[in-house]
Amino acid sequence: MSTNAELATTQLPDGSKADMVFLESSFFRTHGQKQLPTPQEVRAKSPAPIHHPQPPPVKFEELGLIVKYGPSVSVAEAQCLWVIKHLLSIKVPVPEVYAWRVDAGHGFIYMELIYGEPLRDRWDSLVTAERTAICIHLREIVNSLREVRQDPSEHFVGKPILNFRTRLAPINWPVGSINQGPLLDIIFEYQPPAGPFATIKHFNDWFSQLPQNRLLDTQKYECPYRPFLPDNGAITFTHGDLHRGNIMVSSTNPPQIVAIVDWGQAGWYPDYWEYCKALYTSHYAGTWRQQWIPMFLDCRTEEHEVFAEYFVSIGAI
Asked: What PANTHER family would the database entry show (predicted)?
């Protein structure tokens, strides 16, 4: 798809369907009319107990297939993979999605099996030049994600459009999941579902009040940290979980990024969110946090200090 392509949200794969199969995908071009494994077959192949809250993905290597499933796996993640593949092609490498299913309260995403290793497993053996090259590529990937924008002319009127933009502008659009649904970030796992929010200010106001949710109205106070969350940035398309376990690299040398995986927390967030979440998933004193993350994400130190105060206060650690 060309760089000036537009994709209306109404043209996204229908998220209301419990069973969606992409017959035009490479799986069916390769395997013809072969049926995908059923949810029962996936569960039977999994080593995890049936009620596991987050079972590991199940591989079907003979089919070049991996199935991510579980109670927290959402259709929105499958839609996200579909959008990235169609809008950004090879600029943001992701697994191709073949189908999704919802069965007994569990989501199942059928997608391309990526052959490689998590960057986490190779990092210690890489020399400085290899690490630098990977971070430069990550910067290119992040910049490409930032080019995916919602059309301001369709702002919050029921027909939002995803655009591939070559220029960024600090315009406020809804904060929420890829399909304009509630926020899916794990930080809010134990909070009541919330979003989408019409502006960054609405989101920041809500976020800053979370630590006071359990207080009586008479106990609530004006948050001293709220002024340090900017309301005038851009709402950007955000992965929300950029750590080395979700960055897949080739097993060959020099290592190359072959895919960014695990888009379950992705969505539209203020432009400071990606940096804050990357630090949230990293060791406080580690060089990944101190030296390498700043190579591919703009540092938002002040915002992170407020972010950290809030996520500790709500027990999201």
From this structure: AMINOGLYCOSIDE PHOSPHOTRANSFERASE DOMAIN-CONTAINING PROTEIN, AMINOGLYCOSIDE PHOSPHOTRANSFERASE-RELATED-RELATED
